[in-house]
Amino acid sequence: MRSCSTLAAPAGEGAPLLMLQSRYDGQTPVEGAMETWTALPQARMIVVEDEYQHGLFPYGTDCVDNQVADYFLQGTLPQRLGSCAARQQ
User: Fold this and answer.
1) In whole angstroms, how large is the CA radius of gyration of the chain?
2) CA-to-CA distance for 58 and 64, rounded, in angstroms?
């Protein structure tokens, strides 16, 4: 397996990046995600509100899953910063 630093396509200006972040993720706090998002003007981020879970895809809601699937399958970029409600438990 290769590390990200050895991939052929470098991330940079023009490279669309989709970030999927839960509001209360203890492993990757939202504050750090916001700093990264701010530093990468081409990045898009979806924040799942009222969620603590770390892995969010597939999530089981249309709001999250459709945007991520459209990004990967169609190249459709969501808005720069968006949010989705947490799943109902």
Assistant:
1) 13
2) 8
Task: Determine contact, residues 49/81, Cβ cutoff 8 Å.
Answer: no
Tell me, what's the pLDDT at 89?
76
Please, are residues 28 and 52 in contact by the beta-carbon 8 Å criterion? Answer: no
pTM: 0.81
Q: Between β-strands 17-22 and 81-84, what pairing exists: parallel, antiparallel or unpaired?
A: unpaired
Instruction: Give the DSSP H or E segment for 29.
Output: none
Convert the pLDDT of each residue in 38-84 to its tens digit. Answer: 999 999 999 999 999 999 999 999 999 999 999 999 989 999 999 99
Q: Which helix (H) or strand (E) holds 38?
A: helix 30-39
For tokens 């169609």, the residue is 74
Place of tokens 């081409």: 42
29 burial level (CB within 10 Å; 0-12, 13-18, 19+):
middle
The closest of 81, 78, 83, 28 to 52, measured between CA atoms, is: 28
